Amino acid sequence: MSRERIVAEAVALLDEEGLARLTMRRLAERLGTGSTTLYWHVETKDDVLDLALDAVFGEARLPGEPSGDWRADARALMGEWHAAMLRHPWTGALLGRPLMGPNALARTEFLHAVLVRAGLTGAHLTAATYGLSHYVIGSAMMQAAWRGHDETAARRAADEHLRAHRDRYPSLAEHGHLSGEDWDATFAHGLDYLLDGIAARLGR
User: Fold this and answer.
1) What does the alpha-carbon distance between residue 127 and residue 197 come to, in Å, rounded to a whole number?
2) SS3 of 98, please?
């Protein structure tokens, strides 16, 4: 038994069964041991959640060295984080917790360093960091939520509703629905819009 094994099994449990099913007893059962044994390695269930969340952050690969292109570096990190969240959709519900694990801090440090090299400091740096992070979180959570339904049927129903009420929602009926959209392409385009905005601010 080790902390690493406990965390790996916790991530697997969360992936398969969700947050509601994670208890120390349930985790111990999956590991073939008793709850008391777990407490030799982790103090509380909250510790397990923090460690599991940080393990997922560790899946977002960092570029080996800054490329010199701040947009490319930011885009690469945000794309990796987005993909990791989609592999583990339960992470969205935990992101209100303090992100002080080594993997989370390393990636936050990398993003800050990228934006500082681009020329942002102070409130502008904070706003840009939050804007990019919140976009990744929101996009991943929305895409994961749609995965829980019959997406084709849900989009068709939304289209039919908007067409039936075109007089009330003309812009949505014409441009706002999701049918036929590619989630990954839409995420990439939205990220580019944010990066364009940061670049425009730097230009001023």
Assistant:
1) 12
2) coil
Which domains does the chain carry? 3-56 (1.10.10.60), 62-203 (1.10.357.10)
Do 112 and 133 touch, CB atoms closer than 8 A? no
Helices 3-17, 45-57: inter-axial angle, 10-degree rounding: 80
Q: Name the nearest CA neighbour of 108 among 98, 119, 123.
A: 98
Torsion angle in degrees (nearest 10) through CA of 141, 145, 148, 154: -140
Whether the full predicted model's pTM is greater than 0.85, yes or no, is yes
Place of tokens 């969700």: 18
Q: Decide: helix, strand or coil at residue 92.
A: helix
Concatenating the DSSP letter of every residue in 4-68 gives HHHHHHHHHHHHHH-GGG--HHHHHHHHTS-HHHHTTT-SSHHHHHHHHHHHHHTTSPPPSS--S
| Spatial distance between the Cα atoms of 52 and 91, rounded to a whole number of angstroms | 9
The answer to whether 11 touches 52, Cβ cutoff 8 Å, is yes
Pick from 70-74, 161-165, 180-184: least confident: 180-184
Q: pLDDT tens-digit profile of 43-60? A: 999 999 999 999 999 999
Q: In this prediction, what percent of the chain has a pLDDT beyond 90?
A: 63
